[in-house]
Structure formats: C-alpha cells, structure tokens
Write a structure and sequence with these properties.
Elements lengths: L26 H36 L9 H6 L1 H8 L3 E8 L2 H8 L1 H19 L4 E6 L2 E7 L7 H11 L2 E3 L2 E3 L3 E7 L7 H17 L4 E4 L2 H23 L2 E10 L5 E12 L2 E3 L1 H10 L3 H21 L6 E5 L10 H11 L7 E6 L7 H13 L3 E7 L5 H7 L4 E4 L11 H17 L2 E5 L4 H8 L5 E3 L9 H9 L1
Parallel strand pairs: 6-7, 9-11, 11-12, 12-13, 13-14, 14-15, 15-16
Antiparallel strand pairs: 1-3, 1-6, 2-3, 4-5, 8-9, 8-16, 9-10
C-alpha cells in the first residue's frame, strides 16, 4: 500500500492527486551524504599523510643520515627504555677514531664519509644481536653492550681488532685505530648524561695514554675529574672575588750582586691556602680562563712598577709572565700597549715572558707575536729555555731579547757534567744571537760558584731571595 500526504482542510473534488512520499525530491539528503563522504575521505587522507610525515620526520630526527644507524638524539630520549630492554647489566663504550681529521683532509669529505659508513657497519655487525650502536657526531660513536660479555676484556680486544682492519678508500686502503672509554652503568647512575660523562672521561684517559686502547672508568679518573672541577671553580670564584695577587722575585746582577729587576708572579689565596702558577695556569688555559688572569697580571704588575719608581726603587726592568696561548689572541698586544700607556711606562722597561710550549706548527704565529711586541718597544723572553719544543728553531726564527735557562739544568750543576755542557752551549748560542741570559733556580752556594765566572748577566733563585710582597721587595732594594 502506498502512503500519501493528506491535508483534510484543503481537500476538494478538483484537487490534484496526492504525491507518494517515496517520490519526494532527496537532493539535500544526497548532497549531505556526499559532503560527509568527502569529509571522511579527507580526514583519512590527512591522517595517513600525517602518519607518513611523522615517520619521515622521526627518521630524520632519530636516524643518522650518513651511517643509517640511530643517532645520539634517539639514545638520549630512549635511554632508560633501552637499558630495560637489555634486561642485564650494560656497559657504555665511547668510541673516537684516532686522528680521523688527517684522513678527512687527505681523502676529502666523500671518501672520509665512506670510511665512517664502514665503521658503523662493522660496529653494527660486531654487536648484533646483543648490543646497539649509535653515532654521536663526526667520528664519535656510542656502543651499548652487556657488561658480563667483557669481564675478561674479550669484547674490548675484539672491538679494537675489528676497527683496526684495513678499510678500502677509493683505490687505496687505510688503517684506523680508536680510543675508547668504557663505563659500566650501575643502578645508581642510569641517567644518560652521567653515563656519557663517565665514558667520555675514560675516553680522554685513553687518548692521554697513547690512543688505540680501551680504558675503563675508575675511581682514579673520578678523583682527577673532581679535582679539576674543584680547581676550575676555585679559579672562577677567585676571578670574581678578586682573590689573585702578585709577588715579586728579585733578579740579581751577576757582577754587582744587586737587585736590578723583578719578576711578577701570580698567586691565589683560597681558604688560607696559597696556590702557585703551576697549580693555576694549566687549568686556566684548559678552561679558557687564562685571558682574564693574564689581563689582571698585566694591569697589576704595571701599576706596581710605577709604585716601585715612586718609592725610589727604579728597576732596570720588570718581567711579566703570560700564557703562551696569548700568542693566538689578536687583542692581547693592544691591551698590553694601552695599559703601559695608561701608566706612562716606557715599554723597554717591561719584558714579556712566556714558556716555550707552542708546537713547531705555531712558530709563525709566535714570530709575529714577538715582532709586534718588539715593534711597540717591549722586550721578549722565553722562559724555561731548553725544556720545550724545538729551542734551536726558535733562536733561528725569532729575534728574542732574553732567554731564561730552565732551573732543571742548574740544580746541582757543579757536579753534573752533562748539564754543565748544556748550559755552556746555551751561553755560546746566546752570544751568537745577541741574547741576554737570566739563570733561574740558583739555590746553593755551589750553584752560584759555578755560574759566577760565566758570561751571564742576571741570576735569580732562592739562594738570594724567594718571591716577596711588593713592600718587602722595596725594603730589600733599599738596604
């Protein structure tokens, strides 16, 4: 039976026949259905594209594009889950290829990158299926492996051996070695950054021991790192709180035996303990605090020089020690010149000393540094001459004013025939190059007796004076 629409109030004989309900136009229903369908299809496409994009960006974020292994970001963000998945004690190996930059320079980036890809392949094959490997950056890799598998060093030895095998590089083959730091992750230090720090400290020790080895993190490394951090903090706070000060060791004329100059020496007082240069400088250089210290020394020493003069104790010269790292600091000489000018000090009254620790490849920078200082009128001296790199090359390439013979050649010289010959050779060389000599480390009457009749202009050492405060030094000069 067909259902009809019926309105009794308008029914009459001539009314048109009723339209069946099923024949009512359904345009809007169809349109709505089509829109809903398009909407659902669009949402589905967007969702699928989003999943695809997320997978793509996740690969970019977590996969190393060069080696195709997981990167350090993935390890850092999933570290605890990775450790849990091992279900056993795990060791972290921090791997750094030795001298890889040399191959990068020699072969070019393309072949060097191929080497890194091969290293990643070898590491992956070595640890599979029990361990995992990640690229840290450049030629640094992180490897996680069960601790008990290396209790007898078997895995460490295999790791070194695997990395040493020849690598094809174009038509050539190259041999690589690696320095590796290992840290056994304990339940008390599962945090990624703590583990990485300990493995990296062990890696640094492997490099110090000569590279091509695995070094385990130990209590000795831990203590050394604690001491270094403590010294860094001490220096940092001392700079902030101005706890550095200078003392002055008199320099004696070998003929008159009178004080003719002084050497400014830095000290640091902390909790009633006094630190000396050998306890300060190396740490300050390593942690980039040395420039602030050197600028303090220059400013304080130059001001003290004027006070010596005002006290009626005119100095023939004052020696000021700086770090050899300043050779690479383009603004340091300007600071020295400006400071001397501000105190109206004649530059020839100041001798800038630095130790001969620069390697031969830095000689050109050193020569430029020396020439520039001398062009401004300052004297330049090499401290601890004979104890560093290529002393003879320095004499031939640099026009120095003075050298200080290292104390190690002077101690007990009256009975050490070898040191006597070395000192005599240095004296003869100095004459040839027109250099003045300062002998430091004179501590006994026997040392002085041997040096007295030598062609040496200046002597310095505990036999005469230890380092003194400024006032004490003025008193001695007035005597």
């Amino acid at each position: 039976m067909t259902t009809t629409l019926w309105n009794p109030t308008h029914h009459h004989a001539n009314a048109p026949s009723m339209v069946p309900l099923t024949t009512v136009p359904s345009f809007w229903v169809v349109l709505l259905a089509v829109l809903v369908a398009f909407f659902l299809v669009g949402i589905t496409v967007l969702w699928l594209n989003r999943r695809k994009a997320l997978r793509f960006y996740r690969r970019l974020l977590y996969n190393d594009s060069l080696t195709e292994i997981k990167n350090i970001t993935y390890l850092r963000e999933n570290f605890n889950d990775i450790l849990i998945a091992f279900d056993t004690d795990v060791s972290m190996y921090y791997i750094n290829l030795d001298n890889f930059k040399n191959y990068n320079d020699l072969l070019g980036h393309a072949l060097a990158n191929r080497l890194l890809y091969q290293v990643a392949e070898r590491l992956g094959s070595l640890v599979s299926p029990y361990g995992t490997v990640y690229r840290m950056h450049s030629d640094h890799f992180i490897l996680l492996y069960p601790t008990q598998s290396d209790n007898d060093n078997a895995f460490s030895d295999k790791l070194l051996h695997t990395l040493k095998q020849d690598y094809p590089a174009g038509v050539h083959t190259v041999k690589l070695t690696a320095s590796i730091g290992r840290y056994s992750i304990s339940s008390t230090t599962p945090r990624f950054h703590d583990c990485l720090l300990r493995a990296e400290l062990a890696l640094q020790e492997a490099k110090l021991q000569g590279k091509d080895r695995v070094v385990y993190y130990s209590s000795t490394i831990k203590r050394r790192n604690h001491d270094a951090f403590s010294r860094f903090r001490t220096i940092k706070e001392a700079l902030k709180e101005k706890r550095f000060f200078l003392e002055y060791q008199p320099i004696i004329c070998n003929q008159s035996r009178k004080i003719v100059g002084v050497e400014a020496l830095i000290r640091l007082r902390d909790n009633r303990k006094t630190y000396y240069p050998q306890e300060i400088i190396a740490y300050a250089e390593k942690y980039h605090l040395i420039e602030d210290i050197d600028r303090y020394v220059i400013a304080e020493a130059f001001e003290a020089f004027t006070r010596f003069e005002k006290a009626g104790c005119a100095l023939e010269f004052m020696s000021v020690n700086i770090s050899s790292t300043e050779i690479k600091n383009p603004g340091f000489i300007d600071y020295v010149v400006e400071t001397a000018s501000s105190f109206s000090i004649a530059p020839e009254k100041i001798t800038i000393e630095f130790t001969e620790t620069q390697r031969p490849e830095d000689f050109s920078k050193e020569a430029t540094f020396i020439k520039t200082l001398q062009a401004h009128g300052f004297k330049v001296a090499i401290d601890d001459f004979g104890s560093g790199y290529s002393s003879m090359i320095r004499l031939s390439q640099n026009r120095l004013d003075r050298i200080k013979i290292d104390r190690s050649f002077i101690t007990g010289i009256h009975e050490n025939k070898a040191n006597q010959k070395i000192v005599e050779a240095i004296i003869n060389l100095s004459k040839t190059f027109g250099l003045e000599i300062i002998v430091e480390g004179v501590e006994t009457e026997s040392d002085l007796a041997y040096l007295s009749n030598k062609d040496i202009r200046y002597i310095q050492g505990y036999y005469f004076y230890r380092s003194l405060t400024e006032n004490a030094c003025i008193v001695k000069m007035r005597e």
